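Table S4 entry, p-hydroxycinnamoyl CoA hydratase/lyase.
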Amino acid sequence: MQEQDRATDAVPLALVEVADGIAWVSLNRPDKRNAMNPALNAYMHEVLDAVEADERVGVMVLTGAGEAFSAGMDLKEYFRETEEKGHLAVRRAQRDAYGWWRRLRWLEKPTIAMVNGWCFGGAFSPLFACDLAFAAEDAQFGLSEINWGIIPGGNVTKVVADLLGQRDALYYIMTGETFDGRRAAAVGLVNESVPADALRGRVAEVAKVLLEKNPATLKAAKDAFKRVVEMPFDTAEDYLVVRQESLAFLDKTEGRKAGIRQFIDDKSYKPGLASYRR
């Protein structure tokens, strides 16, 4: 990465706080409502590398500093200024942006989006990339692209096609109308909305539940779901058999055997009510 693309020590483009097994990652351009510019997008690759390698971290939470999750792409820096530099600069900017969203989607650790405020346009992509999502009830969502002459790109159209019903998706794509966290939960864009002052606590509560699970199984389970949603039934059946068998090899703790032993022999837990003891 070129030096001008790096965050400075004084003003990091993303803040990372690790506590109790959770990495709280905040996009950090609050004066721009955390709009994603080329420098931020390039820097997020380094952040994800660090989170993935940090043995203290079991769950990652993505949020935004200040009053926004992210206002989407920075219209001045990501679009106008990059386009002025030519075709290759545009492609590089796209690779950095799409690349970190893709990496986030397949991260080795569970991820939760914590939407604390504005979430517009391109921000739907990292929102979707996270495994789970929670929003403040008063958070504001919108697909504003129609208002300035483009379609929702960066796979945002695919995001809303996958998460929302057709009528809801087309309504917000075609009108650009904003909606709040309550509505986002109602249409399935996020798992749940809660009052703003309870948001971090609710996300931490869910993260702690995930921290109790076998990490190898969590990775396999989330990846398997994301793959099978686009597979025919019989193909998915075969894939899941192989995926389970590969998990048995990859999980060096032999969690499946431990879970069965604790249930059948030790009678120390019930799988329908809790996790086995790791």
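Residues 1-8 have pLDDT under 50 and may be disordered.
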